[in-house]
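Support request from a user on the community tier.

User writes: "When I paste my structure tokens into the form, the page sometimes reloads and wipes my input. The last time it worked, I copied everything first. Here is what I submitted, just in case something in the input itself triggers the reload:"
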């Protein structure tokens, strides 16, 4: 979990480029997390999406 959105975005971008998968930054209360697209379901609040193919 991250408390700073900028750090979460940097990690999500790096993970997206490393795995060549879509990643999301999600909001969980006052914290942020990074997940891959295949782990996401409709119940999370997506803040940012990183697509390495776009």
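"...and here is what came back when it finally went through:"
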């Amino acid at each position: 979990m991250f408390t700073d959105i900028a750090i979460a975005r940097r990690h999500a971008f790096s993970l997206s480029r490393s795995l060549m998968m879509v990643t999301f930054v999600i909001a969980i209360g006052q914290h942020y997390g990074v997940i891959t697209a295949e782990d996401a379901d409709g119940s999370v609040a997506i803040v940012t999406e990183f697509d390495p193919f776009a």
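Agent notes: The reload is a front-end session timeout and is unrelated to the input. The helical segments are 5-19. Residues 3-48 form one domain. Escalated to web team.
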